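Please check the following for our workbook:

***
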Amino acid sequence: MNAVTPPQQPSSDPAPATTPLRATQGAQGTRDAPSTRGGDNHDHSHDHEAGYRGPATLEFGGEERAVDVELRGTFQPVDGRYHWYGRVIGAPELVALLGGKRTAALIRTPQGEARGELSDPDPWDRYRVTGTSTPPFRVPGPNDPPPVA
């Protein structure tokens, strides 16, 4: 036996409450994400990249070279470490010295020094510089005033 259900009358009850959604842009395009209504209690004031641009000295394989660098970094909560990176600017002699190969180096700036790695020269012969933990530049603390724009 097939039962036929009668058509339902419109209800005078209000629609059930739903959690509002907001569109977010992800790596795979726009998607709906739950609203953060109710509060994101995380302090995002430190979620910026600190950096340094200026003169530096590279020490590697018994060589010491004066260069200019552009460096920046950020704390990564996934592994709990500070990751810094950047490029050596205008030092094509590094390609001749290193032959495009990856090498460990000491990077020294007027603000500090750190061990890192030189690798991956780009088409303009700017070597990539990477490191983990204490960077060769000063990282502002939570109590430092914001940078002047």
